[in-house]
Amino acid sequence: xxxxxxxxxxxxxxxxxxxxxxxxxxxxxxxxxxxxxxxxxxxxxxxxxxxxxxxxxxxxxxxxxxxxxxxxxxxxxxxxxxxxxxxxxxxxxxxxxxxxxxxxxxxxxxxxxxxxxxxxxxxxxxxxxxxxxxxxxxxxxxxxxxxxxxxxxxxxxxxxxxxxxxxxxxxxxxxxxxx
Length: 179
Fold this sequence. Notes:
alpha+beta; 29% strand; Nucleoside Triphosphate Pyrophosphohydrolase; single chain
């Protein structure tokens, strides 16, 4: 039986630039029927949203409790998710309190990262990151998954953060501006 979410992930990957990383993502997804789910392999897919302010000058980051880093909001897929973008927006809304986020069509960034023991049986996330835009003057709320949620200038990110996050933000912001 076909899994609409998994099918959508394959579609999303086909729109990403052809790179060895995209090939690895496609191979991992093809190798495991349950690669989209937390209960699947210890290395599984996640969705996150790099949320930009309406003017594209700021990015929303959460101070993640487990990772102890400033990161984009995101997490595991859930049973009701039908698309990668929908899951990413759901996670971003849950973690920030911002309603009305809009995904930027085709703006995708692929990132695989190993995890610490704080994440239990999860050993790595194959993260499908989408660009999203918040409504003007969106207020934020801190969820129980984070210590803090804040807007940051795209060129002045806080510490500590994922060393690749600045590159991710730059790449997705370029796609945002050209959309």
